[in-house]
Amino acid sequence: MAVVPIIGLAGGIGSGKSTIATLFNQLGIESIDADDIARQVVELGTPVLTKIHQRFGDEILLEDGTLNRRALRHIIFSQPEEKSWLESVSHPAIRESLIVALQQAKSNYVLLVHPLLFETQQHKMCRYVIAINVPKEIQIQRVMNRDQIDEETTLNIINSQLSNQDRLDKADLVLENTGNINEMNAKVLEMHETILRLIK
Ligand code: ADP
Q: Residue 66: what are its φ and ψ, rounded to 5°?
């Protein structure tokens, strides 16, 4: 396990995890993003990509041999059994890479930024968990703007994740991400000081 305390930053898609993690980075706190790790474990030449290819055939790859994420997303949101299969293959690989990355952190604590922190039980690796609270309407708008996807796809993803309320109930600390970036910066600074006190 990591030498420094792990603080979870949990929030659904578009809740502001990356934005908030960047603000912590500016305070010198390292962060490991489970989404980045999830992308790395399916890069060209990885064992997980080979298994995906074997299961779904050439259709699941782009011309350059990399994963066709859009095609995969379509399959897993329309076929729950394929989603379970994908998770059974990818989650152990993600977990292993996450642990390696977390162990290398050298800041006072390290943030584990994760859209499915509780769903994957990885909150158990964390000393404390911060949940990001954002109203669903704002979340939908931010995802649609950022990813250029329609409302139905956005809602499918949001509804496949833990509800905002469930996440808040399970977390130790809450960050509201409804204000502008300056307001967020102030809230992050306050949270940083709280965490430093808690882990002392
Ligand atoms: P996540 O990493 O949780 O998926 P992001 O940090 O990418 O979410 O945020 C989703 C989108 O919303 C991004 O386009 C981001 O720039 C925007 N966003 C996040 N927080 C705020 C905020 N406080 N004010 C305005 N836009 C925001």
A: -85, 170
